[in-house]
Amino acid sequence: MSVLNGKKILLGVSGGIAAYKTASLVRLFIKAGAHVQVIMTPASKDFVTPLTLSTLSKNPVHSNFFSQDDEDAVWTNHVELGLWADLMIIAPATANTLSKMATGNCDNLLIACYLSAKCPVYFAPAMDLDMYKHPSTLSSFAALKQFGNIMIPAENGELASGLSGEGRMAEPENIVAFLEADLDSKLPLKGKKILITAGPTYEAIDPVRFIGNHSSGKMGFDIAHEAASLGAQVILVSGPTHYKVKNSLITVVDVISAQDMYDACHLYFNDVDVAIAAAAVADYRPKVVALQKIKKAADNFSIELEKTKDILASLGAIKKDQFLIGFALETENEIENAKLKIQKKNLDLIVLNSLQDEGAGFKKETNKVTFIDHNFEIEPMELKSKESVAVDILNKVILHFSKS
Ligand code: CTP
């Protein structure tokens, strides 16, 4: 999956012949799963039509500070556009637009959006070879880079003037590859390995029956996807669930029982930087598993159970510098019980779910959690989607690495 998937891209098009290539660029962004809005300078409309870019981006194209709809003038909120974007790219960036960006000469909507944008800004220059080398252009490049903007260098080749040299806007495929590589290298969990447990475990009674629980696995899978989208390599040890992974950075290890999960976790734990135990592991299993289906006979029937191994506690006992996160599902004395689990299992952080909170728990789309760290600092969170809880958990991981 492209790192551009789900990203909000603001494309600023200025007036050079390479503007016609932005039709392909928008298509590639959309294909990569990005959301695209386009701002055009007045001059760029001579090279590619707003209708083309609006159709391809599936959004209206902006080019004026206001649009005239019969008698009603509607202001285009450049601040909102600038804040909407996860990244802005100016392509093609002409010498004129680059110079305005460098000096803050705000005489069109594109420059106003650029000045309002808080996100990373990329620019892909396009001009004739002598313009590209001119000291004033070079000083625009230097100023823009010094402001923190990122240049996607022009390519060598035939130019609109008929001359050949450096100045062609990078090809759309190369722009996309440049953005992907740059964003990928800056992902906050790039190079980190994370072990995650998810789902229920099934403890066999006989060949056709088991003891299980209602865990769907959603929380663990959401954490895995969020971790991978932040660049981490994920080993997801999952009990039986219908969820599928959508990211090549995630390796799923399917397990059935608590013992399988224990074995898989211990296979990988030494090699990871973080472990997050989101699985609902059975605490007990039948002491003896019948080899044949148990037949119905007496009116009452009992099964002797024995304790399973506590996977999380066993990881806490051997951890070196791994950041270890556990969950606690409680119905009473929540905070005190969670604190005890932090100590007993040697955790860095616990994510407390209280079944007393409406919207939290098994088979729900939402969760309401409280974070408690190893210093017993308590941080209650709002009720939110499990995806958002996953974001909060991974933010704790990022914070941990930013301090260490
Ligand atoms: N856990 C585990 N292995 C087990 C039981 C639990 O790894 N055999 C992990 C869970 O994945 C969770 C944490 O331990 O991260 C706490 O699970 P929870 O069910 O809340 O607590 P238990 O330790 O099982 O204790 P109790 O059921 O008595 O509350």
Automatic annotation (TrEMBL):
Q: Where is this region: Phosphopantothenoylcysteine decarboxylase?
A: 1-193
Catalytic activity, reaction form: (R)-4'-phosphopantothenate + L-cysteine + CTP = N-[(R)-4-phosphopantothenoyl]-L-cysteine + CMP + diphosphate + H(+); N-[(R)-4-phosphopantothenoyl]-L-cysteine + H(+) = (R)-4'-phosphopantetheine + CO2
**Could you say which cofactors this protein requires?**
FMN; Mg(2+)
**Record note on cofactor:** Binds 1 FMN per subunit.
InterPro entries, per database record: CoaB-like_sf, CoaBC, DNA/pantothenate-metab_flavo_C, Flavin_trans-like, Flavoprotein
Q: Name one GO molecular function term.
A: phosphopantothenate--cysteine ligase activity
Q: Which stretches of sequence are listed as region Phosphopantothenate--cysteine ligase?
A: 194-404
Ranges for domain DNA/pantothenate metabolism flavoprotein C-terminal: 189-397
Entry keywords, A to Z: Decarboxylase, Flavoprotein, FMN, Ligase, Lyase, Magnesium, Metal-binding, Multifunctional enzyme
Xref: NCBIfam families? coaBC_dfp (TIGR00521)
Concerning its family, UniProt says:
In the N-terminal section; belongs to the HFCD (homo-oligomeric flavin containing Cys decarboxylase) superfamily.
User: What HAMAP family does the record point to?
Assistant: CoaBC (MF_02225)
Name this protein carries in UniProt? Coenzyme A biosynthesis bifunctional protein CoaBC
Organism (species): Flavobacterium piscisymbiosum
